Amino acid sequence: MYQQLINDFVSTELLPDTYAEDALKFFLPLLKNIEKLLKQKKLESRNFVFDFPILGIQGGQGTGKSTVAALLTLLLRSKGIRVAQLSLDDFYLSKTDRLDLAKNVHPLLSSRGVPGTHNTQLMGETLNRLQQLGMGENLVLPSFDKSQDDLTEQAFLPEVEGPIDLIILEGWFVGLYPESESALQEPINDLEANEDSDCSWRIYVNQKLATEYQELFQHISLLVTLQAPDFKQIIHWRTLQEDKLKARSAENTDGIMDLLELKRFVQHFERLTRHGLATMPSTADITYQLDSNHRIIAGSIDPS
User: Fold this and answer.
1) Which of 39-43, 175-179, 237-241 is predicted least confidently?
2) Count of domains in the chain?
3) Could you count the other beta carbons within 10 Å of the beta carbon of residue 136?
């Protein structure tokens, strides 16, 4: 059953045939872990408050988080498991709210992406509401239009019907812990050196990650990370993402970046992306190591 579903998914998503090979080898064992999670309702290694299973998927930009989440959702639903699939990206603040942050806190906060540019209150409310959703009840989910760099219009927001058995939350820094204060002092790129010389943006972002986001991440009961080879590869994959977004958006593409804009944009992500590459394999429950062709070359599962 899974073989055909995976083959159909690969065909629909225009993925290489090798993706099906990796899915069978690595993601089917992951499904067993998820099924175990659903039976237990919680893992002893997590500070799990609501006794409700949440699967977190982390990885740098372009590593394939949303594709993995979509495939797992498809396979789980085929077994009658009711899944709500969420992305950290869909909780970005509106353009107006980010401009307010840029004016009142720091100019770099006008750009979406880093901790502090999401509506964490809405994220918490959404997670709570999904857990409480009853039979036949519907919930409208948040969504963000990257081609517009703003919230998706209300008429196009997705819905999910309850009850929900599992929440999948994917995002580029899902489950990531903050850096030490001492690590923030030295700029790592031109953006930090020239536009955050007093370190105030870095401190603000790190403090947000240490507080509001950790309050949400502590409820993740199983954390998966997709480990890119290095940051250079992530830049390449992120460029490909922008090309695909441009191809899908025939008009109204104010939010799509050219090469120079993209080069500056990824510098906002560089610090925490590098931090994730260094730390996530030791903190995640499951690590999949990727090569430059998006193939999984190794997978490890924390026995705890």
Assistant:
1) 39-43
2) 1
3) 8
